[in-house]
């Protein structure tokens, strides 16, 4: 076997080091700019406000947004969400600075205040979640919360600005310390200053009941941070603004419009990262939220700008949104009860916001229902974010309202007869194919919503349809094109770009119908481009064929509209028929994707891709048999040379690196894409090896470890000088945390032999960070083989899950807790602990504390 010459690929989470430092620097600069503005006496000149606003948008907004994206790539749930939230805040503040010279102060004050109240509520949620992360984030977020409060007070009383400036200075100082800590940590790969290593409240120590396994729960197996908390938070500020507007607190919507940048960031990024995580449900859900809030905001903006809106009662485009939300609510029944109830409330709000309700009543129905959704969003967002941080359910969301199996049976009862006997389809289970299905879902949803808005255009002045053509038509199709490109489907990317161009022409017509003659060449070009799309649709599921044919008719109606020769109601008929096909396709793909089965028929592609399998493919790294001593000696040589190998254990496959080479331990983080905050355990061949290092452990801890080792239990114990007696050297800094170390003594002859040859080994599971445990050496080869220096092949693993990790730091107080329940049941570990305590009670008189453990 040949060695690969290429070096193992470095993972972005380590290359990006500490993006939190970048985000905090952006906050420092932004807070300092606003503090100076608050301290200065008298009104600032228009030029100064524009310059300050521009700096806030670029540094506080865009730069912090980049840091948030890097944090999501680093699997940092809270920091990524916080940076996205506050990047939108600084962009909004910068936009307000720029708008100040052009608006009456009273109009600007009442227009901005509702959004600030929404941000205050979001800041409270982030503060509550931050106490589970570290000691620095909570005071920074509390200072941001108080800053928002006093900025709101300062809109009415000048002293409020001075108090806000004081808290902004505190943000500058505390964030500066945090930047120093994180920068040093990024350079040294360990925390040198206090504040970030621990948290005031450790969610890992919370005992929770094991949740019922659901099929969609495997979406946690990913190297990207979970965007669910951010997506639900994105509903808070838009809802707050529209509540105050419809209940009459302010009427001029122009100052409030920048607040919807918050929803755009949270929903679009939430959808995109859900797509990267192959999470169809949340990817589609957040797109729907985005379209709803943005279109409602644009309608109110057009009303303020005095666009004609006296024909609102005949505009039925909003019912398309209601239909999509009903589909979403139905499939939400197999999610948590909280998500199902939330989407049901969102659907009710959508019904209460339709244009057929008289304006006087509409303001109260929509305003009151939006207030309920805003409050509910806070809880659902906090629950998802807290559970993501803890990596388990610590805030109640509930199990499914209806199990996925039951919902599958209900749909099968009706659609089974239309499937021609076909029941198996891996398009909804394989990650690479789920990406294509998400593209299909988002594309069909955006088309359905845009066509619903276009259908009544001949009966209206065009103001209301304009919101749908801009948001669902142009923007969302371009977003879908980006998803298609990321999924590797250039054909769908082409189709989505053509559809975006189609809706761009309609948007121009609705803005100014005098452009009809100017847009004639563009309409003909789109008709020709879409004809190519019809040909490409043969390579997709068959639902795309009638959809592309009907869209071709819509393109023809656009051409005849530009030439002003279209028959009456042609646009209505073509748009409605195409929307029906799009709604069916969206319904089918959402149901199939969420339930991960082929239930609602969409048809097989006419043109199918033929996969050519390569024969005799050379393995990506050297493979060694676990049955040959010579092979294990070669693996030991690899470890001694600073290599990283995949090895079987008594549970699942693991990655190992010799503690003689700290750089090889750092490579494990690169290879797995493991966040630096997550520690790596120390593997010993037997308990005697630990005894010889002479650690100062209590007799109870020794008695407990004697019962646990060797086997599928790992004990977390305090670090100490004894680790140097094991010959770890500088590797002490790279295994475990600053205060503790997880000791692993597996019941594996292969691993015990390697440790006896090479010394203590740093060990962690052999899977990409967040991914499923590797239960066969083939899984290690497929997922990480191209990054490793060798893999020991031993067939199927002994267990399906990793070891149980027990926290023994407070064992002398008679307490053990669990970081992870693995292959060894909790009841079994508790019994071992009780046996150890019983032994200590029975032999307390004869046990020598000077000799905690004696070799037999």
From TrEMBL:
> Annotated Gene Ontology MF terms?
double-stranded RNA binding; L-threonylcarbamoyladenylate synthase; tRNA binding
Give the record's membrane topology.
Multi-pass membrane protein
Report any one BP term from Gene Ontology.
regulation of translational fidelity
* Reaction catalysis annotation: L-threonine + hydrogencarbonate + ATP = L-threonylcarbamoyladenylate + diphosphate + H2O
Lineage: superkingdom = Eukaryota
Question: Which InterPro entries has this protein been placed in?
Answer: DHBP_synth_RibB-like_a/b_dom, Gpr1/Fun34/SatP-like, Sua5-like_dom, TC-AMP_synthase_SUA5
Q: Which Pfam families match?
A: Gpr1_Fun34_YaaH, Sua5_yciO_yrdC
Instruction: Identify which top EC class this enzyme belongs to.
Output: transferase
Segments spanning the bilayer are 12-36, 48-71, 78-99, 111-133, 140-159, 165-184, 229-250, 256-275, 287-307, 313-332, 339-358, 364-386, 438-457, 463-481, 493-511, 523-545, 566-587
Q: What range(s) does the YrdC-like domain occupy?
A: 629-824
UniProtKB keywords: Cytoplasm, Membrane, Transferase, Transmembrane, Transmembrane helix
Instruction: Please give the GO cellular component terms listed in this UniProt entry.
Output: cytoplasm; membrane
Entries under SUPFAM superfamilies matching the protein:
YrdC/RibB
Enumerate the subcellular locations listed in this protein's record, separating them with semicolons: Cytoplasm; Membrane
EC number(s) stated in the UniProt entry for this protein:
2.7.7.87
Name the coiled-coil region(s): none
Q: Which family does it belong to?
A: Belongs to the SUA5 family.
Q: What is this protein called?
A: Threonylcarbamoyl-AMP synthase
């Amino acid at each position: 076997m040949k060695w690969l010459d290429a070096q193992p690929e470095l993972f972005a989470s380590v290359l990006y080091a500490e993006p939190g430092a970048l985000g905090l620097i952006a906050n420092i600069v932004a807070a300092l700019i606003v503090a100076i503005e608050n301290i200065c006496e008298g009104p600032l000149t228009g030029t100064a406000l524009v310059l300050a606003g521009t700096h806030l948008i670029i540094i506080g907004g865009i730069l912090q947004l980049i840091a948030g994206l890097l944090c999501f790539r680093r699997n940092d749930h809270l920091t990524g969400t916080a940076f996205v939230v506050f990047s939108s805040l600084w962009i909004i503040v910068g936009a307000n600075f720029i708008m100040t010279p052009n608006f009456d102060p009273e109009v600007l004050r009442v227009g901005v205040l509702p959004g600030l109240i929404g941000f205050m509520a979001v800041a409270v949620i982030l503060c509550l979640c931050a106490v589970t992360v570290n000691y620095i984030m909570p005071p920074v977020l509390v200072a941001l919360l108080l800053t928002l409060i006093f900025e709101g007070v300062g809109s009415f009383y000048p002293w409020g600005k001075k108090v806000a400036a004081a808290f902004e200075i505190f943000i500058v100082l505390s964030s500066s310390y945090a930047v120093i800590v994180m920068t040093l940590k990024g350079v040294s790969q360990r925390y040198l200053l206090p504040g970030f290593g621990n948290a005031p409240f450790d969610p890992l120590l919370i005992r929770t009941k094991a949740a019922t396994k659901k099929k969609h729960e495997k979406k946690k197996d990913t190297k990207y941070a979970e965007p669910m908390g951010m997506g639900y938070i994105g509903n808070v500020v838009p809802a707050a603004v529209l509540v105050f507007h419809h209940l009459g607190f302010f009427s001029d919507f122009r100052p409030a419009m920048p607040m919807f940048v918050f929803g755009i960031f949270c929903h679009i990024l939430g959808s995109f990262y859900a797509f990267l995580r192959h999470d169809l449900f949340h990817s589609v859900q957040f797109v729907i939220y985005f379209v709803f809030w943005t279109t409602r905001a644009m309608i109110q903006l057009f009303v303020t700008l005095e666009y004609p809106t006296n024909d609102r009662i005949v505009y039925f485009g909003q019912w398309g949104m209601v239909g999509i939300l009903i589909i979403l609510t139905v499939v939400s029944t197999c999610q948590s009860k909280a998500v199902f109830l939330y989407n049901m409330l969102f659907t009710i709000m959508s019904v209460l916001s339709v244009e057929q309700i008289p304006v006087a009543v509409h303001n109260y129905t929509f305003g009151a229902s939006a207030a309920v959704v805003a409050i509910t969003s806070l809880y659902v967002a906090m629950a998802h974010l807290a559970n993501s941080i803890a990596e388990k359910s610590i805030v109640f969301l509930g199990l499914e309202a209806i199990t996925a199996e039951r919902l599958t049976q209900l749909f099968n009862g009706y659609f089974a007869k239309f499937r021609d006997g076909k029941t198996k389809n891996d398009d909804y289970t394989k990650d690479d194919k789920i990406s294509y299905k998400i593209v299909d879902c988002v594309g069909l949803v955006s088309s359905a919503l845009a066509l619903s808005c276009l259908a009544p255009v001949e009966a209206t002045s065009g103001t209301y349809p304009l919101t749908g053509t801009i948001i669902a038509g142009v923007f969302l199709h371009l977003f879908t094109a980006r998803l298609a490109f990321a999924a590797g489907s250039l054909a769908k990317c082409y189709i989505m770009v053509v559809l975006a161009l189609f809706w761009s022409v309609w948007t121009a017509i609705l803005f100014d119908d005098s452009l009809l003659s100017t847009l004639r060449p563009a309409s003909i070009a789109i008709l020709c481009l879409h004809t190519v799309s019809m040909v490409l649709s043969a390579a997709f599921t068959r639902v795309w064929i009638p959809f592309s044919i009907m869209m071709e008719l819509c393109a023809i109606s656009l051409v005849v509209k530009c030439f002003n020769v279209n028959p009456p109601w042609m646009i209505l008929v073509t748009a409605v028929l195409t929307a029906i096909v799009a709604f069916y396709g969206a319904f089918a793909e959402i149901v199939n994707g969420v339930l991960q089965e082929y239930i609602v028929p969409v048809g097989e592609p006419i043109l199918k891709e033929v996969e050519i399998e390569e024969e005799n493919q050379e393995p990506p790294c050297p493979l060694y048999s676990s049955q040959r001593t010579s092979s294990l000696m070669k693996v030991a040589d690899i470890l001694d040379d600073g290599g990283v190998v995949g090895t079987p254990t008594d549970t699942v496959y693991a990655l190992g690196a010799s503690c003689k080479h700290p750089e090889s331990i750092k490579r494990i983080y690169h290879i797995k894409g493991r966040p630096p905050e997550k520690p790596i355990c120390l593997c010993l061949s037997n308990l005697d090896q630990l005894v010889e290092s002479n650690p100062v452990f209590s007799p109870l801890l020794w008695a407990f470890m004697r019962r646990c080792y060797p086997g599928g239990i790992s004990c977390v114990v305090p670090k100490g000088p004894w680790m140097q007696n094991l010959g770890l050297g500088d590797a002490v800094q790279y295994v475990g945390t600053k205060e503790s170390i997880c000791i692993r003594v597996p019941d594996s002859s292969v691993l015990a032999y390697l440790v006896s040859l090479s010394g203590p080994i740093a060990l962690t599971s052999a899977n990409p960070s967040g991914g499923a445990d590797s239960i066969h050496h083939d899984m290690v080869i497929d997922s990480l083989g191209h990054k490793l220096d060798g893999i020991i092949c031993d067939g199927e693993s002994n267990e399906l899950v990793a070891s149980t990790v027990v926290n023994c730091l407070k064992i002398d107080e008679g307490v053990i807790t669990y970081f992870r329940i693995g292959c060894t049941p909790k009841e079994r570990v508790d019994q071992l602990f009780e046996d150890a305590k019983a032994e200590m009670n029975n032999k307390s008189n004869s046990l020598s504390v000077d000799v905690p453990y004696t070799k037999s």
